[in-house]
């Protein structure tokens, strides 16, 4: 069975952790200060291991990166034995100027920066284009929420999509890793609509086919 390490225990990390635990997927959190983060492990997360990033990732097949985008490369750089791991980049590089503004690194996206820095890992972009409300509960009036994943390693991407399906999402292949930039921009649109247009945070983008 896939074991997942979540780096970061903020709203995004905890929401994804709740979904994993609810789906019966072994998960643990990796944070700099485990003692401080344990207080957040309530409800479905009660009893979930909270370790240092190194210990959390040691036996994990998949690592979900749920730290601030600017800290993404640094967070992964301290992990030993990165070879063969699947790294799922759930971050978005943003600043706020009368709404969200995309601020990508020179590589084109955070996911591409991670892939360039750690070629021994398989990087997949996903779980980033909606808020923690959706990450924690991927149900909607029309059925499971659509979730898009981009990556160059087709086997790794397929494994992440299978994991997403087990978590209750309707997973879609969004193409190669260069399309991670599109998913980051989709997140910008989601944030703008949620926070600037009065729509609220309980919505997601959906593929709907004509009859």
Strand content: 15-25%
Radius of gyration: 16 Å
Total count of domains: 1
Discrete helix count: 8
Strand order of the biggest β-sheet? 3-2-1-4-5-8-11-12
SSE pattern, N- to C-terminal: EHEHEHEHEEEHEHEEEHEH
Overall 3D shape: globular
What report would you give on this structure?
The protein is an alpha/beta fold. The protein has one domain: NAD(P)-binding Rossmann-like Domain (Rossmann fold, 3-Layer(aba) Sandwich), CATH 3.40.50. Helix content is 33%, strand content 20%. The protein is built from eight helices and twelve strands. The strands form three sheets. The protein has an eight-stranded mixed beta sheet, sandwiched between helices. Strands 6-7 form a two-stranded antiparallel ribbon. The chain is globular and about 45 Å long.
Write a brief structural summary:
The protein is 33% helix and 20% strand. It is of the alpha/beta class. The chain has 8 helices and 12 strands.
Write the layout of secondary structure elements.
Elements: E1 4-7, H1 11-22, E2 27-30, H2 34-37, E3 50-51, H3 53-57, E4 62-65, H4 72-77, E5 86-89, E6 94-96, E7 100-102, H5 110-117, E8 122-125, H6 132-136, E9 139-140, E10 143-144, E11 146-151, H7 154-166, E12 170-173, H8 180-196
Parallel strand pairs: 1-2, 1-4, 2-3, 4-5, 5-8, 11-12
Antiparallel strand pairs: 6-7, 8-11, 9-10
Which short descriptors sum up this protein?
Rossmann fold, 20% strand, globular, 8-stranded mixed sheet, 211 residues, two-stranded antiparallel sheet, 8 helices, alpha/beta
């Amino acid at each position: 069975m896939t074991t997942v390490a979540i780096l970061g225990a903020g709203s995004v990390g905890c929401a994804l952790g709740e979904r994993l635990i609810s789906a019966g997927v072994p998960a643990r959190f990796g944070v700099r200060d485990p003692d401080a983060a344990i207080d957040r492990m309530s409800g479905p997360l009660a009893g979930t291991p909270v370790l240092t990033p190194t210990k959390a990732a040691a036996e994990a097949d998949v690592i979900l990166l749920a730290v601030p985008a600017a800290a993404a490369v640094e967070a992964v750089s301290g992990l030993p034995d990165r070879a063969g791991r699947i790294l799922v980049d759930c971050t978005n590089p943003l600043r706020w100027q009368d709404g969200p503004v995309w601020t990508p690194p020179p590589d084109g996206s955070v996911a591409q920066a991670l892939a360039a820095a750690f070629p021994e890992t398989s990087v997949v972009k996903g779980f980033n284009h909606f808020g923690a409300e959706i990450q924690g509960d991927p149900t909607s009036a029309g059925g499971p929420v659509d979730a898009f994943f981009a990556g160059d390693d087709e086997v790794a991407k397929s494994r992440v999509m299978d994991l997403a399906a087990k978590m209750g999402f309707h997973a879609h292949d969004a193409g190669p890793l260069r399309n991670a930039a599109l998913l980051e921009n989709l997140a910008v649109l989601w944030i703008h609509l949620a926070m600037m247009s009065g729509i609220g945070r309980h919505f997601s983008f959906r593929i709907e086919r004509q009859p």
